From TrEMBL:
Its main location: secreted. This is Germin-like protein. Oxalate binds at residues 97, 102, 107. It comes from Juglans regia. Oligomer (believed to be a pentamer but probably hexamer).
Length: 209
């Protein structure tokens, strides 16, 4: 039964997402042709403009972790030059999309199911937060640090996000700081803590075999 309900919600979010994409502000440079093709594509037909990477979500079971399913230029080359991209976000109960930024686009999030605690921090270090209900929209301004958290201990949440760039980019704050080899002392001084604490954070975020 849960699978059927999830499937119906998925169809609803897909229909709603088309309206979201239409109002997302375009941010990529204009192109001087109708569309751009990929060098490896020799036949341009309807298949080139079709993305099937989200079919696995239809009728699937509710999520058990946080997952982001992207349809950006990397996954869907036909988006190149079109100034749009898309993502489906699944949040198991108690999971988080950690603080991150999209350097090339704002994000317009539509909550399809569940509740989410969301927020972003502006360049004056002011925090803007909201608890979203089903049917709510929330915009994360371009380039600002933001997050989403499903604080519900029992129920999952589903959202869709539209971007005004075919390649909005994602910069994860935890991973950028603690998994890229920045010197422990630099981080310890920056966070006014000790090297042992920094090393513990790096260990916790390191990829597990």
């Amino acid at each position: 039964m849960a699978s059927k309900v999830f499937s119906l919600k998925f169809f609803s979010l897909m229909i709603s997402s088309f309206a979201i994409i239409q109002v997302t502000t375009a941010g990529d440079p204009d192109i001087l042709s109708d569309f751009l093709t990929h060098p490896n594509v020799t036949i341009i037909d309807g298949n080139f403009f079709t993305f099937t990477g989200l079919r696995s979500l239809v009728g699937s079971d509710p999520p058990t972790t946080f997952k982001a399913f992207k349809a950006s230029m990397a996954e869907f080359p036909a988006l190149n030059g079109q100034s749009v991209s898309f993502a489906v976000l699944e949040y198991a109960n108690g999971t988080i999309n950690p603080p991150h930024t999209h350097p090339r686009s704002a994000e317009l999030l539509f909550l399809v199911e569940g509740t989410l605690q969301v927020g972003f921090v502006d360049t004056t270090n002011k925090l803007f937060t909201q608890k979203l209900q089903e049917g709510d929209l929330f915009v994360f301004p371009k380039g600002l640090v933001h997050f989403q958290y499903n604080a519900d201990p029992q129920n999952f949440a589903i959202a869709v996000s539209a971007f005004g760039s075919a390649n909005p980019g994602t910069v994860s704050i935890p991973n950028t700081l603690f998994t890229t080899g920045i010197d422990d002392t630099v981080l310890a001084k920056s966070f006014k803590t000790n090297v042992a604490t920094i090393q513990a954070l790096k260990f916790a975020l390191a990829p597990k075999p």
